[in-house]
Design brief:
Largest sheet: 7 strands, mixed
Shape: globular
Low-confidence stretches: none
Protein name: Glycosyltransferase 2-like domain-containing protein
Family: Belongs to the glycosyltransferase 2 family.
CATH architecture: Alpha-Beta Complex
Helix content: 40-55%
Organism: Streptosporangium fragile
Strand content: 15-25%
Number of strands: 9
Number of helices: 8
Domain Glycosyltransferase 2-like: 11-161
InterPro entries: Glyco_trans_2-like, Glycosyltransferase_2, Nucleotide-diphossugar_trans
CATH class: Alpha Beta
CATH topology: Spore Coat Polysaccharide Biosynthesis Protein SpsA, Chain A
Radius of gyration: 18 Å
Length: 244
């Protein structure tokens, strides 16, 4: 029986493609008090959906219409009905037992709770030296361009109030989704709190993440958002000049 520590509802969005072996481990970590679990299935060829439904009969399944993690999350967010949306991975790298820390941060006043492996209490069993270096460089660049104080840009464990989904205005398909969320949350003036998180190694299977390819996509996202901000600023200046 659900014993809710919060008065608001919580949805958990899990993008998955061919993760049947991992889902029993992932779902076992989910708190009993969450209100909704949405599995976004990327047209799996294994028993991902059947396993997920057997583990959680109240599961909501969204069949992904596009491709990529960013697209999967966007479709899952659109389907969520909770006051708070939490995003976790289906490979066992993110621990559902940490959800309470993210939701507590939101309950205490944050708009966006951002996971970090680099703050005291966080860590990673999985990140390689090249990915760690790339993440540090991209984090530093983002902080310099956007005035943020992030410690870990490229990490996919986040939670936010659903009412801010429009402000995030997510429109990318790949692993750069986390970077886009972090930048747009800052640009929208949302109250952001970093939450220490420990990343675990994938339990079964191989990751679809490619350090160089996806790192370049993240870099392009950072620079594109800077140009987008500059274009928007010029447009507003022209509108004000015309109105005057």
């Amino acid at each position: 029986m659900r014993s809710a520590p919060f008065t608001f509802s919580v949805s958990v969005v899990v993008p998955a493609m061919n993760e049947a072996e991992n889902l029993p481990h992932v779902f076992a970590t989910l708190p009993s008090w969450i209100d909704e679990v949405i599995l976004v299935d990327g047209n799996s060829t294994d028993d991902t959906v059947a396993v997920a439904k057997a583990l959680r009969p109240d599961l909501r399944v969204v069949t992904q219409t596009g491709r990529g993690k960013g697209n999967a999350l966007t479709e899952g967010f659109a389907a969520a009905t909770g006051d708070i949306i939490v995003m976790i991975d289906a490979d066992g790298s993110t621990d559902g037992r940490e959800i309470i820390s993210f939701v507590t941060a939101l309950a205490e006043g944050a708009d966006f709770a951002k996971g970090t492996r680099c703050a005291p209490g966080g860590g990673s069993d999985d990140i390689s030296p090249i990915r760690s270096l790339g993440n540090a460089m991209l984090t530093k660049l983002t902080n310099r361009l956007y005035g943020t104080r992030y410690t870990d840009l490229c990490y996919g464990y986040n939670a936010f109030w659903a009412r801010h989904l429009d402000a995030l205005n997510l429109d990318c398909d790949g692993f750069e989704i986390e970077t886009l969320m972090n930048i747009r949350a800052a640009q929208a003036g949302l109250v952001i709190r970093e939450v220490p998180s420990h990343e675990r190694s994938r339990i079964h299977g191989a990751s679809n993440l490619h350090a160089v390819r996806d790192g370049l996509r993240v870099l392009r996202t950072i620079l594109r958002e800077r140009d987008r901000r500059a274009t928007r600023r010029v447009k507003l200046q022209r509108e004000h000049a015309t109105a005057a």
